[in-house]
Specification:
Length: 168
Amino acid sequence: MELEIDIEDWAGENWPQGEWHALAERVANAAQQVAPELANPRLVASLLFTSDDRIHELNREWRQRDKPTNVLSFPMLERTDLVHLDPDDGPPEMLGDIALAHETCAREAEAKGAALQDHAAHLILHGFLHLAGHDHEVSEADADKMEALEIKALALLGIDNPYSDTNS
């Protein structure tokens, strides 16, 4: 794996013990396979495992949405800059930050009948694709493209398509 991931746990009492760092690395590897622009060795990303309360604060402050959400991503590079980033010349570049809220993630996983680790993997992947400049809120075509990338990467991880009707 080339992308460096810095993981912080600001709410360790919320997230159960587990191999979250290893999961994040596997997800980053799958993300790089479907979005090769993420496979630049100069890239660094941070991943925050936190609570609904902290996500609520971040969502209110940065997106003006006064509620918790499952995942937030904060890109630090424009897509064109990312795509044209020379992998061999220059210092590390901060790709961005991803934050996951345990309570929302756990509720959604339970509602879908999915393992918490599988749903967290999907949300981490979703965050990485946002950091790579993909956005499902721009148009239906962009949403379809991002969903297809997620399905392909999750399949690489052995995780079923979360969008199929059989998983809802």
